[in-house]
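Q: Could you predict the 3D structure of PucR family transcriptional regulator?
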Amino acid sequence: MDTVSMTHAAPGTPAAEDPYGVSLAWLLDQEALGLRLVEPAEVPEVSLGWAHAIELVDPTPFLGGGELVLTTGLRMPRARAEQAAYVERLAAVSVVGLALGVGVRFATIPVGLRQACRRVGMPLLEVPLPTPFVAITQAVAARRAEQQNAAMHRAASFQRQMTRAALEGGIAGLTAVVARELDAVVLVLDELEHPVAWAGETSDLRERVAAELVALAARPARTSIAVVSDTGTLAVQRLGGLERPSGWLAVETPGPLSVGDRLLLNQAVSLLTLQRERPRELVDARHRLGATVLELLLDDDVVAPSVVRHLGHFGFEADDHVRMLVASAAKGRTSPLPLVAHALDAASVAHVETETDDGVVVLVRDSDVSAAVDAVTSGLSRAGRHDVVVGVSGALPTERAAAGRAAAVHAAASARASHEQVGWYGTLTLESILADEVVRARVATLAASPLAPLLDSRAERERVLLESLEVFLRHNGSWETASRALGVHRHTLRNRMARVEELTGARLDVAEDRVALLLGLLARER
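A: Sure. Here are the predicted structure tokens for PucR family transcriptional regulator:
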């Protein structure tokens, strides 16, 4: 597993974790060896990888770190300064402890050696004369082998537990087993980083995992990441293949992950990948079939009953009224199709969707439209896709579903122009209808001729006429309310409107003319 940050090793500890290191406490507990801890006063939490007997004054070229050095002191100098230098050389190469055999050159542990070990924080042991160094080495080797066998047995047992949990409880059951075995908080995310299952307190875990996934995305070759701190370890591993992940497994443990823990974690990743991949293939196939049915529905305004009947496979009823949704991304942004489909799946809303030039087109039941819109907008917000707007058509019989596409596209364009996330076609005003660039341009062209005398002139009088005309039209042709809004007498307003009729050729007592003039003014404003 890749490591992106680690705590620094303290003096006298190995530079890298030994998966099967033997604890110093265990070694001291072996009564047959008769070892005595001289420094420090209490047994430290130290793990040693090997016990190595060597009598050189500078043994460091032959040490790799993590050893307990065994010496009788045959070549050790008696001067305290030189003894201190000896200990400092050992500490520099991450030796985890020093054991001096007394009764050969030194009857007791030299004071200089004790002081030097205390200063650098290196454990110092006394080995009695009857204890051969080879006995210590053999004890360490036997303990390492014992721990390796225990790790293998644990992994085999855990594999059986996980397999049973996956068969009986799916991803949730498997997640619970991993959390219990590793004493960890576990979170499983899908490919869109939405929670699928969890165990333990995950209140802020998702946010921290999201931050690590950003870092992981910057390094596509990596499939896992581990962050080690003073409080524990956060490990995140990818589920599925490199080209297309099917999800993520995040595990947070109170301490470092041992090699045995990592082996269990890898087993969990394999089983979770199988759990995620199998249903995903079925879901993908279902979405492809749904897209085909929807494309047939969009092909004509009225479709054959045989096509409509296929919607029954996706949760639609024969007599349902339906609505069309269009999720439109900003220019240059990626399609929101996976987000939309996943959100509707998670909300258990009957739907079919497909990708078109207008955006993601979705068909839902009229009775589900509120739940569908809430699910889609929530999913887009969680993913940070604030560039996507959603347009919703009015309710239509299923066989007329294709007619809802244009309405939904128009509603989406209105929502974008109004800086809103959702546009509902049934609530559009004239202003929102004119938010569509194509509609606005066409209206402005059609209205250009009658309005031209007012728009082309720069005279103050014509500007006053334009303002008075708009206020009059917005107040539904009411002389009293419009004149009050303008702050003029109603006779003054009548004279102005008479002049407008004279210049434009329109009749303000004719509803069609009033609508044409108002649309022209609104199109001009935009």
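Q: Anything worth pointing out?
A: The longest helix spans residues 133-182.
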